[in-house]
Amino acid sequence: MAHHNIIIPTKDKLFNLGEFSLRRPGNLVTAVILAVGLIITVIRFTQGIGSVTNLSDVQPWGMWIGFDLLCGVCLAAGGYFTTVGCYVMGMKHFHSAVRPAVTTAFLGYAFVVIALLYDLGHPLRLPYMFFFPGTTSVLFEVGLCVATYLTVLFVEFSIAPMEWLAGKFPFLLNWRKLVIRCTIILTIFGVTLSTLHQSSLGALYLIAPGKVHPLWYSPFMPMFFFVSSMAAGASMVIFEGMFAHKGVHHYMDATHLREADEIVFSFSKAASFILFAYFMIKFTDMLVQANLPYLVSGYGLWWLVEMLFFILMPALLYAKGSRERNLKLCRFAAANTVLGIVLNRFNVSMIAFNYALPSAERYFPSIWEICISVFVVTMVVTAYRFIVYHMPVLYEHPDFKDAH
Amino acid sequence: MNRRKFLSILGSAGVVSALSTAREAKAGGTHSFPYYEGSYGVLHDTTRCIGCRQCEAACNQVNNLPKPQKSFDDLSVCATRRRTSAREWTVVNKYVVHGKPVFRKLQCFHCNDPACAAACFAKCFQKQPDGSVAYDGTQCVGCRYCMIACPFYMPGFQYDDAFDPLVMKCTFCAPRMKEGKLPGCIEACPMDALTFGKRSDLIKVARSRMRKSPGKYVDYIYGEWDAGGTAWITLAPASGTATAASANPAHDLHPLDLDTHLGNRPIGELTYGALGAVPMIVAFWPVLFGGAYAISKRRDAIHEAEKEAVAREVKNDISYVVNTAANKVAETHGPAAADTVRQAASDALKVCERPLRS
Fold it and tell me: Which positions, given as ranges, span the membrane (chain B) (predicted)?
């Protein structure tokens, strides 16, 4: 086999941290961002939220909710999307995409929770939602589902670290077997929880009918958020794959490389259909709610930009790309979709939020808020690299070949 | 835990949440004013308000809030559009309505069925029988979803407090009410612009004022039904002719920043549909996806069986052909030649067997 040199940690040499100490621009940038992030973290937790953010009484949720939470959760949808495709729908050729997708989903959710701690006034009281459950709150449902799903993702993901550590701690083999036997239950549990909280993120804003612009406010917001999360899930698998091929190509085995392109085309096709459907339901909703007159306004134009260039366009590009088997085009469409999802979440949570207020009272994130968001993304990437360097995510562990 | 037990726990969790949602929905759906029989409210008559800020000063004093930079005697601040915050639980704003100044006091409206309470995931907000909406900061997580939910932009947050930041809003002076005292702002008002009483009585008072002075007021008691009804209700002055005003009260209320588009149902109800769908999804998704899994498994099994059947058929055909040929050869060339044929055929099959199987 034309195995390029994959470094597989062994019983005696568990760690493979060499990659982090290489003098490369990527590592340097990472170090700088992490250092700046840590400093802002200290300021945030000693001086208060007001010291680093532009949040106000009219805009209590800003960048940290709009990007870290809404986009973070949505872009981590690749986990449920891929596992359902592979295990439930029986698309066996997606198999090599499952572990990277589950890994990024787990990291995504874990860091969503970490990022959330920055935004909460009393981060240590987060578990209070379980002691004093406010069952009428959408946020309660989001919290419950995210907490449960994070656990499910942790269990799904745990196979990789167990294979990594099994040489040293053989008892993990039994756990690994148990988890693998539960794969299908975990997958179905995962998709149920994902449906619930992905849609609930949209439902969060149902309670603010006067604040979200009518073109974005709809009783069907939960549906919009859920449908777009599917497109986001498919697109993120392609989008992340693009970077993984750049950065950690040498950790991919032959199976992964052989299946990679086919996965891109399959996911592109799926994403194309989903984006078309998403476009249609949003468009229909606009008509049904008699929002047509709003289109001839600044916000109307902005809404059309989102609809045409960030939903319809990637849908068409995906269709063309998957039909012509054009890898570059599919990747472009994936980036376009991801950007569109981020734009949509920004619109709902910030740009079209408080649209009726005078511009002086409107919100724009502070540089420090953006820094923390970049810091969180960098932490995700660094954790991903650590995992890829140590655990069988992009390759099959030789001890566990054909074990699934 | 086996799978059945696990699923039954999952199911009962769904049912419990469904029941509690249904109960809450019922509480919100069937009640009509008054939410609590005999609860208190305040009638704010903006035609009487002169913008003296005495209420602001009193609020600041009785609640021990930090002193503002500009003193309460400085009436010019009313001209800037202010909102309530963690430091100011009530503010008086000056609005210019059709050329005439109108002052309106802003504070928590103490909704009958408050959106903040529906939104809070740690149950910090509670509508009290006395009419106030109470906030318990000891279990507040600081998520500020109440501030997103409040249609009146009332709650403020202590963004500058690093270790115990809380949501702050008018308490209706509930502690003072318990002592039998009036809320600070009402006691301080020199113009009788704030009338304290049972909410049901205040609605009648408002109507009688409208009746006694035709054309003075907008024919709309703001808060009677808005957002499901509020304990604090507001009367606004009519500006133009009586007919124009009664035709569209929003015309006169919007310049006062009173939103008439909130509807007459509690705001929290907007989320109950989505919450009600949760148990449906919990119950049905496993069946849906379990079914999809079963279908794909069955499809694979059928596919596999078909492949095997084809392979078997091909094998039978081949052995029939080889046997027939070998028998023919045995007849013409003798059994030794037939064995050679069989051997050659079997060798040839071994070579092509692999691609046939896979």
Answer: 272-295
Residue A141 domain flag = yes
A316 touches chain B (CB under 8 A): no
Nearest to A132 among B123, B274, B300 (CB): B123
Count how many pairs of residues, chain A against chain B, have C-beta atoms within 8 Å: 186
Based on the fold, state whether residues B149 and B297 are members of the same structural domain: no
Type of residue numbered A203: A
Write out pLDDT tens, residues A62-78. Answer: 999 999 999 999 999 99
Look up the pTM and report it: 0.89
The predicted pLDDT at position A236 comes to 95
In a domain, B287, yes or no: yes
pLDDT value at A7 more than 70: yes
Does residue A11 sit within a domain? no
Buried b (16+ CB within 10 A) or exposed e, A189-227: bbbbbbbbbbbbbbbbbbbbbbbbbbbbbbebbbbbbbb
How far, in Å, CA of B289 to CA of B298, rounded? 14
For A100, the domain range is: 27-395
Q: How many folded domains does chain B comprise?
A: 2
Alpha carbons within 13 A on the beta-carbon side of A33: 19
Q: How close B324 gets to chain A, by Cα (Å)?
A: 42
B251 shares a domain with B110: yes
* Cβ-proximal residues to A79 (8 Å cutoff; 6+ apart), any chain: A101, A102, A104, A105, A106, A108, A153, A156, A190, A194, A233
Q: Which residue has the tokens 């202590």?
A: B158
In this structure, are B281 and B338 located in the same domain?
A: yes
Strands in A182-266 per DSSP E: none
Strands B232-235 and B40-45: parallel
Q: Distance, in angstroms, between A354 CA and closest chain B CA?
A: 10
Task: Compute how many other C-beta atoms are within 10 angstroms of the C-beta atom of residue B357.
Answer: 9
From the list B6, B17, B140, which residue is nearest A135 (CB)?
B17
Q: Which residues of A touch B24 (CB under 8 A)?
A: 135-136
Q: Is A245 exposed, middle or buried (0-12, 13-18, 19+ CB in 10 A)?
A: middle
Q: Name every residue whose Cβ is closer than 8 Å to that of residue B225 and which is 6 or more positions away in sequence.
A: B33, B264
Has the ipTM of the complex gone over 0.90? yes
Is residue B215 exposed (0-12), middle (13-18) or buried (19+ Cβ within 10 Å)? Answer: middle
Instruction: Report yes or no: A151 at the B interface, CB cutoff 8 Å.
Output: no
Q: Please, what is the average pLDDT of chain B?
A: 87
Task: Convert the pLDDT of each residue in B94-108 to its tens digit.
Answer: 999 888 899 999 999
pLDDT tens for B232-291 read 999 999 876 555 545 688 888 988 999 999 999 999 999 999 999 999 999 999 999 999
Blockwise average pLDDT, block size 10, chain B, 358 residues = 53 49 46 68 96 96 94 92 95 90 96 95 94 95 96 96 95 95 96 95 96 92 94 90 62 89 92 93 95 94 95 91 90 89 86 58
Interface of A with B in 78-97 (CB under 8 A): 84, 87-90
